[in-house]
Amino acid sequence: MAGIAQTVNSQDLVSKAYQHTLFSLFPQSELQSEGPCIYVEGKGVHVSDHEGRRYLDMMSSSSRANSLGYGGEEVPRAMYEQAMRLHYSGTCRFLSEPAVTLAAKLAELAPGRLSKTCFVSGGSEATETALKLAKQYQQSTAKPRAYKVISRWNAYHGSTLGALSVTDWLGVRDIPDPRAPGFSFVANPMCYRNPYRMSDEAYAEHCAMHLERQIQFEGPELVAAFIGEPIMQAHGVQIPTRSYWQRVREICDRYGVLLIIDEVITGFGRTGYWFAAEHFGIEPDIMNMAKAMSAGYAPIGAVMTRDEIADALPVFRHVHTFSGHAVACAAANATIAIKERDGLIGRARSLGAEFGANLRGAVGRHPIVGDVRGLGYWHAVDFTRDRDSREPFADDTVKAVVARMREHGVIASAIGSALEIAPPLVAGKEHLDLTVEVCARSIAEIARERGLV
Question: For residues 260 and 230, what is the distance between their CA atoms, to the nearest angstrom?
Fold first, then answer.
């Protein structure tokens, strides 16, 4: 770490960050006490900050996008070679070779009959594109008046206006201006702490019935789409029952409502499959993706749909300047090739199952832990003040556990009532075992220091 200290002026970096950066989702009060976190170097599954501290990154660079870790040569080389050959081709009908190659590859990997792709630059743009696609399809076919979209409590689909209008999480919706009209929300299948204290199966059925009643209430002829994350991120890795998504698929089909599945977080191996929809045996009408699509090397996202939906549009009235950017598509092609060649998707499924079992064994019975859940390389530890009532902590206990893990050299993330662990797919058993040990130690230390045990 001496080399970093010699080449980076830590104090100057922090000063410039305070002066010239508008920080999102981080309160000014906390920023002043904790300061910005500036990373300067990464290698493998480790990252180093501006003060020379080195961490095991078990959050895939906080946003879960960095699915291949740091310092790899293959993806940057593919990007460089593409930039030297053709860095940009324009948009609309002007395509690049890597964009066409990527679209064909996605058709091969995607569930069901998804085969047509529109490229964007990230998750929020993907949501905007999906909403426009759904509305334009409905208005071009049997439901010309359809403009409404139904989302779910605690959903997160992005922070641009359309995406914001189907979002109910992270505080990004709490702004003075009204959101776009035509959007409503129904119950979501929460794990562990659903509002009615029902069993998982009973609550899943309740959520599905709520969707059906909301479609009836809004008017089926006016409802264009229902959008949902296959596994919700709010309060950490909310895994619904298989029956929930099967019922949702049936309801959408019955009322001619398009099903949009948002795989921005869960796509490209996070849950042990290429796409999380595979866990539930459902075929989306429209599917969003981004984040791990390029392993964080370049901003890229996409929206996929079936031929009959795409072909029903005389023209898709939508455009992005950097749609299908050649260098970003080259990064995504290289990322997918590495994951296929190295068997990282199946490896995440098997090692992730072992990791989840070890995590449950190490912390699942602790008095302040209510639930441990996850799939593949995405897990959450949900905390409670009382195991009988399942009351969440109202103070900073969860953040304190995450901060203690960081002090012990492992990066996790606080997410509502839970902490989240989302390792890069290249993380090995030794990294997962260390994470379990540090998580258990940190929970025990914070609980003891705060008199919670």
Answer: 10
Model pLDDT for residues 418-449, shown as the tens digit of each residue: 999 999 999 999 999 999 999 999 999 999 99
Q: What is the pLDDT of residue 287?
A: 98
Sign of the CA dihedral with 375 first, then 260, 211, and 236 last: positive
Residue 221 DSSP code: G
Please say whether the beta carbons of 235 and 190 come within 8 A.
yes
Q: Which residues contact 290 (CB under 8 A, 6 or more apart)?
A: 65, 120, 122, 123, 126, 264, 267, 300, 301, 302
Q: How would you classify the pairing of strands 46-49 and 258-262?
A: unpaired
Q: Give pTM, 2 decimals.
A: 0.95
What local confidence, expressed as pLDDT, does residue 104 receive? 98
- The residue among 204, 198, 219, 203 whose CA lies nearest residue 150 is 219
Integer Cα distance of 282 and 262 in angstroms: 13
Helix ranges (DSSP H) in 291-380: 307-311, 326-341, 344-363
- Give the C-alpha separation, 423 to 331, whole Å: 20
Alpha-helical runs (H) found in 177-273: 200-218, 242-255
Query: What are the residue boundaries of the structural domains of the chain, listed by start?
Result: 2-66+343-449, 75-341
Residue type, 211: L
Pairwise CA distance, residues 281 & 242, whole Å: 8
Ranges of the chain whose pLDDT falls below 70: 1-8, 172-177
The residue written with tokens 């490209």 in the block is 268
Fold of 75-341: Aspartate Aminotransferase; domain 2 (3.40.640)
How many other C-beta atoms are found inside a 10 Å radius of the C-beta of residue 26?
A: 11
Report helix, strand or coil for 286.
strand
- d(C-alpha 259, C-alpha 415), whole Å: 27
> Which superfamily does CATH assign the domain made up of 2-66+343-449 to?
Aspartate Aminotransferase, domain 1 (3.90.1150.10)
Taking phi over 0 as left and psi of -120 to 50 as alpha, with beta for the rest, 295 belongs to left
- pLDDT for the residue numbered 364: 97
Whole-Å CA distances, 248 to 253, 312, 424: 9, 24, 31
